[in-house]
Amino acid sequence: MQDTFGPRRYYDEPMPKRSYQGAEGNVIMVYGLDDRMNCNRLFNILCLYGNVEKIRFLKSIEGGAMVQMADNKSVARAISHLSNEMLFGKKLQIRLSKQSEVQDIPNPGSLKDGTPSFKSYIGSKNNRYNTPEAAAKNRTVGVWEAIHFFNAPANIDEGKIRDLFASAGAPEPESAIVLKSRSERSSTGMINMKSGGDALGAIALVNHTAIESDVPGKFPFVFKMCFAASKGHPKSKEEIDME
């Protein structure tokens, strides 16, 4: 069903028919990762569906990574909504791992981009399910072309968003709209991409980018993104509460 703003994609997705609640651990295997992906960029897409604890890229499997999520519900959401989606022209495959945890690596090797092949995100402020209150504000939205952004500088506009995407090497947006925020100190809005794959790639590359504030002495804004409730639709209460 469509409304005047386009198809709504805001929903509470039921758990997949196959139950993952009996899994021994909270570890998933991710296959089909492009060379542009690293720990932070994989975190950027997985954090939409649950807290990420550790990520380790595997030397033995090209384009493969092992990820420890915080709980089984996060595992189920990640598998349900990201497996078989296209990212940088490759199909993601996400499966349960037989491992019960991802072991810490004190001195990890480097990926092709020079970043570490292992990283822990335990305690990261960019995880979005750190408290029951924070978790309740998140809603499951599948991969598609509409992105909601928040925690951006108050003076951001479409041109600056396009520059941000270009500097990150992200796919070009089709359009970007800055919406009124509850706070005059920051802004929020919508970004429409050509496809769900382009949107997923943009979130991988641009999510959690630090943007310097125009106010002297103020910490940078951490630009945050998620899939929108509906294309071009005014924000839902939950999206406003995420700011």
UniProtKB/TrEMBL annotation:
UniProt keyword terms in alphabetical order: RNA-binding
Listed GO MF terms:
RNA binding
Stretches assigned to the RRM domain: 26-99
UniProt cross-references to Gene3D superfamilies, sorted A to Z: 3.30.70.330
InterPro entries under this entry?
Answer: HNRNPL_RRM, Nucleotide-bd_a/b_plait_sf, RBD_domain_sf, RRM_dom
Q: Which SMART domains match?
A: RRM
* Protein name, UniProt field: RRM domain-containing protein
Q: What is the lineage of its organism?
A: Eukaryota, Metazoa, Ecdysozoa, Arthropoda, Crustacea
